[in-house]
């Protein structure tokens, strides 16, 4: 299981485009969305309105979740996975095929987990996985509720870390989940307990600490952002 986070505590080169309204057209070049092969489940069907990506205004600038496309994004994501600060938690360092296999599992799946690039001010700078926690093995480790939705995150460039971006983007993404998925009452995360900076970022982003949980590859802090209290925290 991948971690919930990495590097929350080199700027990414290049830009990526989405077709957005003029006031939110913050990415440079429009790119076509990857379509699932005919006869297979629509990518992200189990995640409803999030499957095709989403855009939010944040204090750091316009932020977009762009669905990963393997032919376009593999090189960038594989480079991030080989950063020692990322590899320590994601354990996907090595040849690009190691990362490709991880991505293909999601892209060819039934839509319960969808990978995204996080694009801030037009620049890809983070990698996200949004997944149905209630349908994931993590549900065996806590009292899962129907439609619980989980987040995994890494910030790719060292220059984007340790300046509060993790907190800003975690809050924005959790709110996108709650806005786009009315049936979801909780967004959950399970950062490694050793990553105290990450746990602090989730707390600052409006998540509450629930409990320690034992996962196959780590002892984790279960963090929860509740719909009912999202405007209070």
TrEMBL record:
Pathway assigned to this chain's UniProt record: Siderophore biosynthesis; mycobactin biosynthesis
The entry's keywords: Antibiotic resistance
A GO BP annotation: siderophore biosynthetic process
Keyword Protein transport: no
Keyword Transmembrane recorded: no
One Pfam family cited in the UniProt record for this chain: Acetyltransf_8
Domain named N-acetyltransferase: residues: 63-228
Recorded GO MF terms: N-acyltransferase activity
InterPro entries: Acyl_CoA_acyltransferase, Acyltransferase_MbtK/IucB-like, GNAT_dom
Functional note: Acyltransferase required for the direct transfer of medium- to long-chain fatty acyl moieties from a carrier protein (MbtL) on to the epsilon-amino group of lysine residue in the mycobactin core.
Alphabetized PANTHER family for the sequence: LYSINE N-ACYLTRANSFERASE C17G9.06C-RELATED
Protein name (Swiss-Prot/TrEMBL): Lysine N-acyltransferase MbtK
